[in-house]
Design goal:
Blueprint lengths: L8 H19 L10 E6 L2 H16 L5 E6 L1 H9 L5 E7 L3 H9 L3 E6 L5 E7 H6 L25 E4 L6 H12 L6 E4 L4 H14 L4 E6 L2 H5 L2 E3 L7 H5 L10 E7 L2 H4 L1 H8 L5 H13 L4 H11 L1 H4 L5 H17 L1
Parallel strand pairs: 1-2, 6-7, 6-8
Antiparallel strand pairs: 3-10, 4-10, 5-8, 5-9
């Protein structure tokens, strides 16, 4: 059999050069030579927005993926994740979204990528000064005797209860809870419209020294900016939660969930999410800086990357850290 002809030297050189360039691209963090964009579910609350932009900056500048942020609320963006309109949701709160989460996993449409924030809580809150003035107001069971504290001209003679934003799973949960507690005849549910409007609503109540009653969660900007008292509820148990949710929220698990296609098309990004470490303390510190300086979540993410470097560098390989540092330096040089 006749041997195959050898390639000319110049063609062999081009071949080896191309191979070297591909290897260099891989070493620099890119997983292929034309990475498709990664879309983040841009949930409409600050912790999710800040986490998105920290992870997005690392995915783009460390791993070589263009990123985009798709705005929305938890219900629509969960459907977007199932449909692969987005790739990554950095905060799925359980048990709020437990049924959706379990169904998505069972159907093979989404994959659990690990934990998001820790040290979280949810419940019904009032200002601490209202509690101090009314020591008998301890639990949700006491509310019928103190309705007058939360009535406003706009609340139709009922107490004004500020619920979750429309589209958040907790809005539906709270409606079930209030029904189970027999409180719907006493309360007028209000949708604040946005986290910023919720903060403004609380600020106005505190400035006037008047009553305020509503859902609160932590860690959050409102919970760290105002002195609040969390009304007591019966302790959580699975039975009460399944039968009307007439008990306290459990300590939530906040998960990172991705579309099932992401681990195969971006394995190093998926591994990075598995190692994600963003504590409640990290969020509170970053959010406080953002609020005090009237900055955006994009600004807050860059502040975190520059000032809490010991946190994110601990979960990244050296080559990715170097690329992120270089991108931050380029931004600093451009200022």
């Amino acid at each position: 059999m006749r041997a195959a002809p050898r390639l000319p030297r110049w063609r062999r050189s081009l071949f080896f050069l191309a191979a070297a360039l591909l290897a260099l691209a891989a070493a620099c963090g890119g997983e292929n030579d034309a990475n498709d964009p990664i879309a983040f579910s841009d949930l409409n609350w600050p912790s999710a927005e800040i986490q998105n932009r920290i992870a997005g900056f690392i995915a783009e500048h460390g791993y070589g993926y263009p990123v985009e942020y798709v705005p929305g609320e938890s219900v629509s963006l969960w459907q977007g994740l199932l449909n692969n309109d987005t790739d990554i949701t950095m905060e799925v709160w359980l048990p709020n979204s437990q049924l959706l989460y379990e169904q998505g996993i069972a159907d093979g449409l989404v994959v659990d990528a690990g934990y998001s924030m820790d040290s979280n809580w949810q419940g019904f809150a009032i200002p601490q000064y209202i509690k101090d003035q009314n020591p008998g107001l301890v639990s949700v069971a006491d509310l019928p005797d103190y309705i007058h504290l939360f009535v406003t001209p706009e609340s139709h003679g009922k107490a004004r209860f500020v619920n979750c934003l429309v589209g958040w799973i907790c809005a539906q949960v709270n409606e079930e809870k209030l029904e189970s507690y027999g409180l719907t005849e006493y309360l007028d549910l209000v949708d604040p419209g946005s986290t910023a409007a919720l903060i403004a609503d609380l600020d106005a109540a505190f400035a006037a020294g008047r009553g305020w009653l509503g859902y609160m969660w932590g860690p959050s900007i409102p919970s760290t900016s105002f002195d609040l008292y969390l009304l007591k509820e019966p302790p959580y148990n699975d039975d009460c939660w399944a039968q009307g949710k007439s008990c306290a929220y459990p300590i939530a698990e906040i998960k990172i969930v991705v579309h099932h296609s992401l681990p195969d098309r971006a394995p190093r990004v998926f591994e990075f999410l598995n190692r994600w470490d963003f504590s409640a303390e990290s969020y509170v510190t970053t959010a406080a800086w953002m609020t005090e300086n009237d900055k955006t979540p994009d600004d807050a993410a860059l502040w975190f990357l520059r000032n809490r470097r010991e946190i994110w560098t601990a979960i990244l390989p050296n080559d990715i850290t170097e690329r992120v540092d270089a991108a931050l330096a380029d931004l600093d040089d451009a200022r």
